[in-house]
Task: inverse folding
């Protein structure tokens, strides 16, 4: 396949205008020793039907879709209304660049403005950005933002924060004079507030806590925020399952100063983990330390309302090494999908879907915990995920259930050695009662 | 055109654009007990499906895009994005697969990651790649963190990163986030790195030089091998920003001219659509010496099967969740397979031909501050128009919009005042190139005859020039009832 639009005649005439005898001559500024004087060793070009056949064959080697899956842990299977695919695939949304020229980008810009508004409504924050890469890097950006705002050298991170988010925070802060310390979880699955009280102090930027956390447990954010605020630290809430915001109280109403997270649940397929959608909102007094692109409202010279990217003096192309973040491209198209999703399902739909997640997960938790030998690991209230303790090691149980067409969830022991024999189970609105019942029956059989 | 309101302004109580299936488990009020429930989501939209469809369709019509015409944003490589690649990523087996799925159920995905790494190694001349970085800037950060990890393994991380004054703003920002101080290297009269200046700045306190090649002037750093040996001579590493790789595919490989670590932008060189601001993908290629430090996990092939290797003690760790923007990587792989070796080479050949065609056609009409040979892009300035008629690059850009084109890049390189950085890419038609050239000539003529028309441009867009100063001074970033 070739996507070149020039004819041989075009090339000849264009070379003549340029004054070159051949295309090769145009590369004369590359020293001969640095030129590649052979063909690349790549597979031969494929026509479109050949390519589709080839990629179909590779897709066929993914068998995941044949299973009933109860996996969550930062990527969630939710139903995506057809309008999301249909509208987001319009080429006018797919093929423009970042909206640097507002007069020809009002579509993208208005979408971002609506998206920022939706994120603020959901999180209870005053302001939000145009998106970040994903929930993990958003958490790391929040840590750096807290450091800039407080000029303090330590940050506390819940051990119940997604393990990959914690790893990302460690990677992205390790060269920047910020010490990351973990705070454990109790038997309810929530953060140990006594430990927080001990570790919190005047040299701590703040706390990053996830709710619902890695175990699905909803944290007592208001109580934690009170402890953090006693020392004038910042309360940072990470939300890996954006859908929970449809029914749970907005973190902003519970003392959060910064809310960040992953919004893949809003109309974005699990996509083997990417692209997803990192989001961030904060209180308005932190606006100038917020990383990422921001869209703002203004007027044109005729007084007509319009939208622009704004506050670019925070950003790398103006501030260079002094920028709030190095981010440039973000996840614009994913933010578009989230906007279409949220505006389609609207206030009532969001509440209803989130409510169904709670009900189905609660039903599943009760059914599975009734299997002989199986218990719930934590007593805390959950959203759409919960942790089971099995009477034996999880790995062979997972294998045995897989042989029955069920992927029962995520083994936690590789991430949490202190949680042996456990399984993180996620139940969203796409799983039916029949599938849940079949899972419980299969688990019972496998453990018998 | 109809003024399209914000969705919040057309929202009505009780409407919905999507019907929810009935709950099929018994509803248990106890499930909600003890949860901090919200009573409401204030001012959240409630609209019907048709309203959603019209809203986004109308908004889409207010965007310019590659599929409408030439989009000559320099250094952004706005080439045609093949439709078939968009289709491939919607195969349910790809898009509905879960990142924590057992490896034996996602062998296809792991194959895509592993093979794409190999394909990129061959195209660029490196030994290994990580596909984890989500975009170019994250790739830069990973690249410089790898440099740091390498120096730390040798005893000390060193203190400085050298960056030419023509570089993109993400370079200094990424170096800073890796804990380095930035030292700027001046360009010479040809727009290239000044070797004497480099030699002077390059000490054993310098961790790396970040070079963009071709640089943001569209000029190839012909002394690249000498540059590499100066940097290596002091034990430093050579980093290359691959934003402009479109000029080199199949013609020259950074791994062959002394580069130790490079990031690519799949949303530039490898034709994945930019989506109005992402998702991108910024893979990082390295020479063997840096391989132990790559982010985890790595896809390995054991026997006939693919597996994930997390056990890499020298790794810098991870910079995001899961495996990066996987579906973007998948599109890039499909693109490489469809083009093959000759097609990949043709990218650079025609991209450079098209840029030089524009350059030749507009030379003399617009000022060229640097007269050095152009590769895939050419950087003019507004000097002629500004000196004589007070017309700036902004005026020229806005007038181009009226004439049917997206403007060129203007915000950098900082070393060209009033820059107009034009990158046509290889997929342009002759007709569109000629129309663009004609439009630029018309504007030059208007600048002389009727500059007021440029100053007030654009005239034909849905909104006209917007007050960006007011937007920044009094930021309104969300909708509020009765205020927006």
Result:
């Amino acid at each position: 396949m070739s996507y070149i639009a020039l004819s041989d005649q075009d090339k000849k005439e264009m070379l003549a205008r340029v004054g070159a005898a051949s295309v090769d001559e145009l590369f004369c500024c590359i020293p001969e020793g640095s030129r590649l004087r052979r063909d690349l060793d790549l597979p031969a070009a494929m026509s479109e039907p050949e390519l589709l056949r080839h990629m179909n064959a590779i897709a066929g080697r993914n068998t995941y879709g044949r299973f009933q899956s109860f996996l969550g842990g930062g990527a969630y299977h939710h139903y995506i209304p057809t309008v999301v695919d249909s509208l987001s695939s319009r080429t006018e949304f797919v093929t423009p660049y970042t909206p640097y020229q507002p007069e020809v980008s009002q579509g993208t810009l208005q979408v971002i403005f609506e998206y920022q508004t939706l994120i603020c409504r959901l999180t209870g924050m005053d302001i939000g950005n145009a998106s970040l890469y994903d929930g993990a890097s958003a958490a790391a950006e929040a840590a750096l933002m807290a450091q800039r705002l407080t000029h303090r050298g330590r940050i506390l991170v819940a051990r119940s924060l997604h393990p990959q988010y914690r790893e990302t925070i460690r990677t992205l802060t390790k060269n920047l004079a910020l010490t990351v310390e973990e705070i454990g979880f109790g038997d309810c699955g929530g953060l140990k507030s006594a430990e927080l009280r001990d570790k919190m102090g005047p040299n701590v930027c703040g706390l990053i806590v996830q709710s619902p956390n890695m175990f699905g447990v909803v944290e007592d954010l208001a109580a934690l925020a009170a402890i953090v605020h006693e020392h004038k630290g910042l309360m940072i809430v990470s939300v890996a399952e954006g859908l929970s915001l449809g029914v749970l109280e907005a973190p902003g109403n519970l003392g959060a100063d910064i809310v960040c997270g992953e919004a893949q649940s809003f109309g974005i397929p699990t996509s083997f983990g990417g692209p997803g959608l990192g989001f961030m909102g904060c209180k308005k007094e932190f606006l100038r330390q917020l990383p990422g692109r921001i869209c703002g409202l203004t007027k044109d010279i005729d007084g007509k309302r319009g939208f622009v990217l704004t506050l670019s003096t925070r950003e790398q192309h103006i501030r260079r090494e002094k920028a709030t973040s190095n981010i440039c491209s973000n996840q614009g198209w994913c933010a578009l999908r989230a906007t279409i999703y949220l505006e389609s399902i609207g206030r009532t739909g969001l509440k209803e879907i989130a409510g169904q997640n709670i009900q189905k997960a609660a039903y599943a938790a009760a059914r599975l915990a009734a299997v002989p030998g199986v218990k719930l690991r934590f007593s805390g209230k959950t959203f759409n995920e919960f942790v089971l303790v099995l009477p034996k090691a999880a790995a062979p149980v997972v294998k045995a259930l897989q042989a029955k067409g069920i992927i029962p969830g995520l083994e936690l022991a590789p991430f949490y050695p202190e949680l042996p024999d456990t399984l993180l189970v996620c139940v969203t609105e796409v799983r039916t009662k029949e599938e849940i019942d079949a899972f419980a029956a299969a688990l019972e059989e496998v453990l018998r | 055109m109809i003024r399209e309101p914000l969705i919040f302004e057309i929202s009505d109580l009780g409407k919905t654009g999507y019907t929810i299936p009935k709950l099929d488990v018994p509803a248990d009020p106890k499930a909600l007990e003890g949860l901090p429930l919200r009573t409401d989501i204030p001012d959240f939209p409630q609209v019907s499906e048709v309203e959603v469809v019209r809203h986004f369709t109308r908004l889409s019509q207010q965007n310019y895009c590659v599929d409408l015409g030439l989009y000559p944003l320099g250094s952004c490589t706005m080439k045609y994005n093949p439709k078939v690649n968009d289709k491939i990523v919607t195969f349910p087996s790809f898009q509905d697969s879960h990142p924590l799925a057992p490896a034996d159920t996602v062998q296809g995905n792991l194959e895509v990651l592993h093979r794409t790494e190999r394909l990129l190694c061959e195209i660029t001349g490196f030994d290994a790649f990580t596909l984890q970085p989500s975009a170019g800037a994250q790739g830069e950060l990973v690249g410089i963190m790898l440099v740091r990890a390498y120096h730390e393994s040798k005893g000390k991380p060193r203190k400085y990163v050298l960056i030419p004054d023509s570089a993109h703003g993400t370079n200094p920002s990424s170096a800073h986030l890796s804990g380095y101080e930035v030292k700027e290297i001046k360009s010479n009269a040809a727009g290239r790195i000044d070797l004497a200046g480099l030699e002077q700045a390059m000490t054993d306190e310098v961790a790396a030089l970040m070079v963009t090649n071709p640089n943001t002037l569209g000029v190839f750093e012909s002394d690249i091998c000498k540059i590499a040996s100066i940097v290596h001579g002091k034990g430093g590493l050579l980093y290359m920003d691959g934003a402009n790789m479109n000029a080199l595919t199949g013609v020259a490989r950074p791994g062959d001219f002394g580069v130790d670590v490079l990031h690519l932008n799949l949303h530039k060189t490898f034709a994945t659509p930019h989506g109005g601001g992402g998702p991108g993908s910024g893979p990082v290629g390295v020479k063997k010496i840096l391989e132990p430090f790559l982010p985890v996990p790595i896809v390995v092939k054991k026997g006939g099967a693919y597996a994930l290797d997390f056990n890499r003690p020298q790794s810098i760790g991870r910079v995001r969740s899961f495996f990066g923007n996987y579906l973007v990587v998948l599109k890039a792989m499909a693109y490489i397979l469809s083009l093959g070796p000759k097609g990949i080479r043709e990218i650079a050949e025609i991209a450079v031909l098209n840029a030089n065609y524009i350059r030749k056609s507009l030379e003399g009409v617009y000022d060229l501050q640097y007269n050095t040979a152009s590769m895939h892009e050419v950087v003019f300035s507004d000097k002629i128009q500004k000196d004589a008629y007070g017309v700036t690059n902004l005026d020229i850009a806005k007038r181009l919009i009226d004439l049917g084109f997206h403007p060129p890049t203007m915000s950098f390189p900082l070393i060209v005042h009033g820059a107009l950085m034009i990158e046509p890419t290889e997929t342009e038609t002759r007709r569109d190139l000629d129309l663009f050239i004609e439009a630029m000539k018309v504007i030059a003529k208007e600048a002389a005859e009727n500059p007021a028309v440029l100053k007030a441009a654009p005239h034909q867009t849905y909104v006209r020039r917007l007050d960006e100063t007011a937007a920044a001074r009094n930021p309104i970033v969300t909708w509020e009832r009765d205020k927006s």
In short: Residues 99 and 108 of chain A are 7 Å apart (CA to CA). Residues 332-369 of chain A form the longest helix (38 residues). Chain A has two domains: 66-79+347-447, 82-340. Residues 82-340 of chain A form a domain with the Aspartate Aminotransferase; domain 2 fold (CATH 3.40.640.10).
